[in-house]
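Co-fold these.
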Amino acid sequence: MTVTLFVPCFVDALFPQVGINMVRILEKLGHRVECPEEIACCGQPAFNSGYWDEARCVAEPTLKRLKNAEAVVIASGSCGAMLKVFYPQLFENKPEAAAAHELSHKVWEFSDFLVKKLGVTDLGAKFPAKVTFHDGCHGLRELGIKSSPRKLLEKVEGLELVEMQDAETCCGFGGTFSAKFPMISTAMGEVKCTSAKQTGADYIVSNDSSCLMHVQGLLSREGSPLKTIHLAEILGGNQQS
Amino acid sequence: MVAQKQIWEMSMTEREKILGRIREALTLTAPHPGTHGRHEPAQTFPGRPVQSAKPWLPDGGETPEEQIAHFRAASTDLKTDFREAADEAAAMAILKEIAQAEGWKKIATHRSELTDKAASALGLPKLLTGGGYDKNEMEACDAGITECDVLIAQTGSLIVTSRSSGGRALSVLPPHHVVIARREQLVRDLTAGFAFIQRKYDGNYPSMISLVTGPSRTGDIERILVLGAHGPKKLTVILW
Amino acid sequence: MSSHSQEFLDQASVITRDLRHRGLIQTALKKYEVARDKRKSAFGDWQSARQAAAETKWEAINHLDKYLTEFADKLEARGTKVHWASTGEQARDIIVKLIAEKKAKCVIKSKAMTSEEIHLNDAMEKAGFEVVESDLGEYIVQLRKEPPYHIVFPAMHLTRDEISDLFQRELGSAPTQEPEELTMIARRALRKKYIEADIGITGANFAVAETGMISLTENEGNARLTAALPKTMITLLGIEKVLPKMEDLALFLPMLATAGAGQAVTGYNTLYGGPKQADEADGPEEWHVVLLDNRRSLLLADAEQRDALHCIRCGACLNVCPIFRNVGGHTYGTTYSGPIGSVITPHLRGLQNWKHLSGSSSLCGACTETCPVKIDLHHHLLQNRRNASQEEPSALEQFAYKVFGFVANRPGMWQVGKELARMFQPLHKFVLGSKLDPARTWTATRDVQPVAPESFKEWWRKNKSGK
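Predicted complex below.
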């Protein structure tokens, strides 16, 4: 199968190892990976802020570029939800409506793609550490992803998964919310970090780098030894680029 | 009376205005619920949704034994004092025992088959609500003794009405509400309970129909349960 | 920025740092969660029950004219006076005039959020009447002269010590640590009021069209007493409260109790169909029902968000909302707080002044997931944001999104952007978190993830592209 990777803007610039690990994993499984250079943004920041015209300007070329893709895989539940759930709403009653619906059926969040589409759970990865998993809200509630990342983590050699209290509670990132309402975003993040720390884990794992960026920002600021890591980095077995 | 009339006239016109706005608003069709903006239903129901909902709601038990067990378990949970008696004499004995243990001096009650029996068994001074009563006098009574229309196994509830249970206040003003009932009054669930009420009154309803579930309670202070917030601190159900 | 928005930000800045508040709310809501989950597990199928409830409310709201007419006509047929109020002001006038006409001195009230919405207590007090809230939580916040903190748990932000101090000050009671004793102090004080009161005012949870009755849900028995002892009863309810049939209560009462407070059913669920009848022992001689529109018909006209009128005010969305849990009920500055408040307040009180509430959400969707009548809450927040921006765009924000979209999807420009970021990144530490820091809303509390030495696309070009 040819897999089209959608590498979101912040993953490209800030977390390249997430994308690199995805490429390695998919190639190891025998798939051809392509990554269109000209798309980096799904338009979610503008969409979530209510600027739907501006969001459409970004989404339209994305829609066109992904038209012929066999499967589109994204390392973020949030951007995945944008393409899968919100593009059809964004283009409702627009000429691109049909294309948006068509794309919606082909879009996969990475962990769900591995487990549900490819039927793979064991990638032969090793990661000797105690981890706790944070469910990104868009992945969890817009895309309904709960079991896939856990099934993948279960098969990682040496890894111990400890669920934190309120794993499903939002970490407080929320895109532009984190900058517009930083005090609330920070308080939510502190609650999340406290739950994670109570598990005694070494790492917070998630399938969404945007949540981790926020949580890691808080943890680094307070000098906590607790670290964050994206699921793909654990599965790809390559934590350092 | 003049002010009353003015209010009335004003309201009539507002009624038409409000209904007019509603009708205009409803010319647009809303998406179906649970479909995130789509117009086709997510799930279809053969009749009214509530008629399909029975298996989805908490159960009250199939057989009379199961239903009694449900009512008993719910009562424990609710801190309702549920007493099962073998027969009428045993029920009256239980009532007398409670009256003695609590040192009742005066009861409030209403005229009905079962409460008449209870009142004569107790032999205490009583306030009858029938033709009106003094609020302060009722407030000073030790217990309010009533019949109920129906008991509900599913939730450990009972239904009292202003016609069948001595008015509106009798079951909430005295500190202890005692309900005397027969086993055959127990029904499976709320659906059966409301159906019973609709059949019994056949359109000629009492002005108040109250589903009572446990003694009065509050959690308004630190979410800690306290009984007897405003209504009765104790609810006793005596069933035979 | 509206003054409401600035107030929200100011209060949020203070309360989100108040760890005592955070702990208190989390503990209370943890108790709620445990109880709710226990009750939910007794359902045969909670999700299907939600759908059934949603469909029932959809039917009622989408035929509101029919059901409302049926409700009002049935009520009137049994001697109840029905009043219709387009605005809060009209509703206040109707009620204040009624009270004046009865030459009443003391008004006893059971909990009614609709009365908070129209600031009824202020109006009655200004007209010279004594008004006493009888729900314990409402009584406590009334004594503190503040609005309810939560639509179901009005005093959940207070500790027993604060309540003891309050009662000592206002009622002259002895200090106590026992919630039981505190409750009894209020019980004694309020019992007198029930007996004295000339007028009882209630809200309603449901309006049953089929039988022309209101259904009133409560735990304490205060509403039962309010509707039993005073000579005149007044009920204020929003026009959206209708349910088609009595049998619907068999579904709605357990769902309201489970979602709202983790109970199987609430202590008292009482149907009222008229004033005292000739053969009845007690009850009000007159009953007035005031039906309030107050811009609900405007929300009804917004087909996209019409389901917000399905709301049964259980408060479940507040309880699970991480924003509510951190800013608390008072920060919103609205009658209805939490997700449902953020959705409907812009409709009820003006979009531009209240759009910040729709902005103040991480869109996590916990509200939508928990709502027993399946209101599409967090998506409505998105729609409010869209409507607000369309109506009055912020030029700066609009420009920023245009530029970002333009740059991000042009590989050459995106590359230049990343290189510029790498170039200036080392300088960031000199202004980090200060007023000169362009990213200070982020960096005040969080470290920044640096742009990687080699971005994914740079790696791709080097290792994969064309290979």
